[in-house]
Every structure is written in structure tokens, then in C-alpha cells.
Design a protein that fits this description.
Catalyzes the reversible phosphorylation of UMP to UDP. The chain has helices at 16-19, 28-44, 61-66, 71-95, 117-125, 144-153, 189-195, 202-210, 225-230, and strands at residues 8-13, 48-53, 100-104, 113-114, 129-133, 158-163, 170-171, 183-184, 186-187, 215-219, 238-240. With 241 residues, the chain is α/β, with parallel strands linked by helices. The strands form two sheets. It has a nine-stranded mixed β-sheet, sandwiched between helices. A two-stranded antiparallel ribbon has the order 7-8.
């Protein structure tokens, strides 16, 4: 799948992946497992990794908007939630001996660097894991869009979309509600868009298609899966290209 040519990737982690089985907040055991997976591929496969984090385990802007809040305000709250997750992941990575930098699209100089493309690339070249928070810094976008955009900006070779809750790829339907749903090993960008497959938001899919960025959708909460994807194991996840 990876053709062993992906020496720089963007790993997209949803906020819910930080919550573990409790479904909300930050579960320390889960975050440590995710960090160990990242350290393994960074140090043993020497793959440059930038991580884009979501914030849905703490706050989702669409939920706030649905409850009557101003959508832009609610999304800005969600951007702050991503920074909390980024700082938590940074702490565990550095406990494991992995140098990191947190860069945020929302400026908060006391706790994170501003996102600067050339600086992010330099950190990666020095072997640091770059954790990207704050989304795009603008409301009305999910964190899928900055994952795609940052991947193009830092010249990554693929976007790795980490799922959770036992979903291990792209299915013909929601496997939780449709027992006949089957997993797809590979699918095109246009199929994802035309069939409404639940991969990433349409904006990010279109951007990846326009920039020839492959996407791998896989279960990041299964130990060893991240390494297997980067080792080219075709049995893990779904390749979108």
C-alpha cells in the first residue's frame, strides 16, 4: 500500500481517538499508546511525522451551533480544544524521549509556536514530531481540511486518517448499522465523493485529489497498525487515491 516511499506523512487524529472507551475527555492510557506508535515509526522507520489533532473529545463546534450558539464562536472554541489535545500528546511523546514542537494556527505564543510552513519542515528534518493544532485558524472547516492542506504545504507523501471505535477502513455503508457493509481495500477519490463514503469531509477529499495526495484510512487504536501501514501492509485500512 505505502510502496515504502512515504518518508513524510501527516497523521490525522480525531479528538475522539484521545478519549478511549470513555468517549469524552483525555484517556491517559490511550494517548500513551498513540504516542508509542508515533515514536516507533519516527525512530525505527525514520519517517517524518506531522500530527493534526481534532478536539471532538472536548468540544464540537457543530454541537454548539445546533444548540443555538453562533457557529463561528462555537468553532473557535473547538480550535482551543485541539490545542489541549496537542499539548497532552506532546507531553507523552517527550516523556518517551521524542522531541516535538506544537504549532498552532491560532496564535498563543506562551504555549505553542505559530504555524510557519518553513519552520515546520525544518523541525521535521531535525527528527522532531510536529503537532499541528488550531485547525486552519478559521471557523466552518473540520480538521480534515488542515490535515490535507498541511500535507501539501510540508511536502508530505500521504495523509493517514486514523479512525477509532473499531472502524478499520472505508466500508460500502456504516458497518455499525448495516451488517451487509463490506470493507474496501482501495477506492478512488471520485468514488468517495460520488458514493458519499464516510472518509473525510468533501473539501479535503477534493484537495487531496487535486494535489495527488494518497489517503489511508485505518484503525489507529490497534497497536502496530501505524507501522504496518508504513511498511506497506495491504491488509490494513483502505487506500484512497
Amino acid at each position: 500500500m505505502a510502496e515504502q516511499s512515504w518518508n513524510r506523512v501527516v497523521l490525522k487524529l480525531s479528538g475522539e481517538a484521545f478519549a478511549g472507551s470513555q468517549g469524552y475527555g483525555i484517556d491517559g492510557t490511550t494517548v500513551r499508546m498513540l504516542a508509542e506508535e508515533i515514536v516507533d515509526v519516527r525512530q525505527n522507520l525514520e519517517v517524518d511525522i506531522a500530527v493534526v489533532v481534532g478536539g471532538g473529545n472536548i468540544w464540537r463546534g457543530q454541537v454548539g451551533a445546533g444548540a443555538g450558539m453562533d457557529r463561528a464562536q462555537a468553532d473557535q472554541m473547538g480550535m482551543l480544544a485541539t490545542v489541549i489535545n496537542a499539548l497532552g500528546l506532546q507531553d507523552v511523546l517527550e516523556q518517551l524521549g521524542q522531541p516535538t514542537r506544537v504549532q498552532s494556527a491560532v496564535h498563543m505564543a506562551q504555549i505553542a509556536e505559530p504555524y510557519i510552513r518553513r519552520r515546520a519542515i525544518r523541525h521535521l528534518e531535525k527528527g522532531r514530531v510536529v503537532i499541528l493544532a488550531g485547525g486552519l485558524g478559521s471557523p466552518f472547516f473540520t480538521t480534515d481540511t488542515p490535515a490535507a492542506l498541511r500535507a501539501a504545504e510540508i511536502e508530505a507523501h500521504a495523509v493517514l486518517k486514523g479512525t477509532h471505535s473499531g472502524i478499520d477502513g472505508v466500508y460500502t455503508a456504516d458497518p455499525k448499522v448495516d451488517a451487509s457493509a463490506t470493507k474496501l481495500d482501495q477506492v478512488t477519490y471520485m468514488d468517495v465523493l460520488n458514493r458519499g463514503l464516510n472518509v473525510m469531509d468533501p473539501t479535503s477529499i477534493t484537495f487531496c485529489m487535486d494535489n495527488s495526495l494518497p489517503i489511508v484510512v485505518f484503525d489507529v487504536t490497534t497497536p502496530g497498525n501505524l507501522r504496518r501501514v508504513l511498511d506497506g501492509d495491504r491488509g490494513v485500512g483502505t487506500l484512497v487515491r
